[in-house]
Amino acid sequence: MQANNQPIALGTGAGKVILCGEHSVVYGYPAIAVPLSSLRARVTLAQAETGSGVLIHAPDIKYQCSLRHAAKDAPLALAVRMTLAALKQVEPDVIMTIKSDLPVASGLGSGAAVSAAIVRSFSTYTNTSLSLEQISAITYEVEKVHHGNPSGLDNTTVVYEKPVFFERNKPPVIFRIGKPFQLVIANSGIASSTKEVVEDVRHHRQNAQAYYDMLFTCIGAISKAARDAVEQGAIRALGTLLDENHELLVKVGVSLPQLDVLVKAARDAGAYGAKLTGGGQGGNIIALVDTAHVSLVEQAVRAAGATQVWHTKVE
Ligand code: PMV
Predict the structure, then answer these.
(1) Which of 17, 217, 232, 295 keeps 20 to 30 A from 86, CA to CA?
(2) Following DSSP, what letter does each residue of 116-149 receive, concatenated?
(3) What does each of the 315 residues of the chain score in pLDDT, given as a tens digit?
(4) Ligand 1 pocket, residues with Cβ under 6 angstroms
């Protein structure tokens, strides 16, 4: 499959980080997440030979397949099929190429960002717009393949590309950031399946429901307090809440020694607070930093084993 034709349509989708509330959000407690607008998935469509249909090309994960040969539940194909149905369009003859800044299976919303980018690329190609609700709904359906029982937090944050206060089965609340803040994001290099981690937590909770619900209640309260802190620009207070959330996630059983080491390195280097983000048992940590400490924290997490490090401003 040659992907050297000129792109004729582009769609992009942002990554996201969960500031507080992963896992407890699955059980109805609040969580907050912010988009990572500087780390994105990009999908281009280029004209292909007549009769070829959609040819899917994802060089980052060494995947290529035609839409007509893709399995029914293959996530990329599902996103295309659902998009064409929503747009009421027949399958066009295009090469769809997917590139992403986001590492896969590491809690930064890579799957949702790719789905959103796919929907937008076909929307541009067909010159037919879809509402944010429609894009989010398609992204959610694809997340079900990735995650099994997703809360809806990822697709909402990625598609709306705004800070989101999220409670399952309630309309998402978009909220304002009182003062921009900076995050250092560090990848442990350990890929992790959110689906499996969520399933592990479900099993543990079955054996100790009162204990897990107590942990989730505490995390829910932290999410609410963190939203207030973000709205008020109370960065120090937010840092303390991130620290507390991490300790609770350790108790939930979704951290790993490698993540704890990264969190400690970031705190010791002067971060206001740090925690794992996303499904855990691998993936990334986030550290809340001020300008004076950005490079110190970056160096510290690299020395502590981070395989990739990003610095981003949330505003
Ligand atoms: O690993 P991520 O970034 O997809 O985040 C998952 C967040 C969970 O709360 C663990 C699951 C969910 O569906 O919200």
Answers:
(1) 17
(2) HHHHHHHHHHTT----HHHHHHHHHHHHHHHHSS
(3) 444 579 999 999 999 999 999 999 999 999 999 999 999 999 999 999 999 999 999 999 999 999 999 998 899 999 999 999 999 999 999 999 999 999 998 899 999 999 999 999 999 999 999 999 999 999 999 999 988 889 999 999 999 999 999 999 999 999 999 999 999 999 999 999 999 999 999 999 999 999 999 999 999 999 999 999 999 999 999 999 999 999 999 999 999 999 999 999 999 999 999 999 999 999 999 999 999 999 999 999 999 999 999 999 999
(4) 18, 22-23, 25-26, 107, 109, 147, 150-151, 153-154, 194, 198, 278-279
pTM of model > 0.85: yes
Tell me how far apart the terminal alpha carbons of the chain are, to the nearest angstrom. 40
Residue 54's SS3 state is strand
Ligand 1 centroid to Cα of residue 5, in Å, is 36
40 CA to middle of ligand 1, Å?
A: 18
